[in-house]
Fold this protein.
Amino acid sequence: MEEQDSALRVVVGVDGSPSSDAALRWAVRHAELIGGDVVAVAAWELPGAHGWSAPAVDPGFDRSIAEQGLVKQVHQVLGESGAAKVRQRLVHGNPVEALLSEAEGAEALVVGSRGLGGFRRALLGSVSQQCALHATCPVVIVRPTADVRDSGTQAE
């Protein structure tokens, strides 16, 4: 375990979607209330790695592009000072497995209700649903709302 893991941790999944923006804001507010740290986790993998077909990806996409996306999202959502308070972790692999692994021993795992996946018709995204079913810590599923007074988030 890393040195930072001894503190209360709130793990949040980020993927560039509006739901993950809302989840990131919620996680930061919650961590402030409990005196914890936030770990923003982004996972990347090539579609088809787990047996289902997906649209072709840009062959030039690599870890550095994924890392730039994570850094950009955290800074856009939280601003410079807020981003400095968040540990960012990029994991190559399945998003569900990455989030569940990182959330072991955490105070909470926070995910958006729908990510950037192709299953838009689902009420809950497949990642949030699997996290809710298999996490060893409490899971908060956050969805964006149109209500600006609510900072754009609503926990389910």
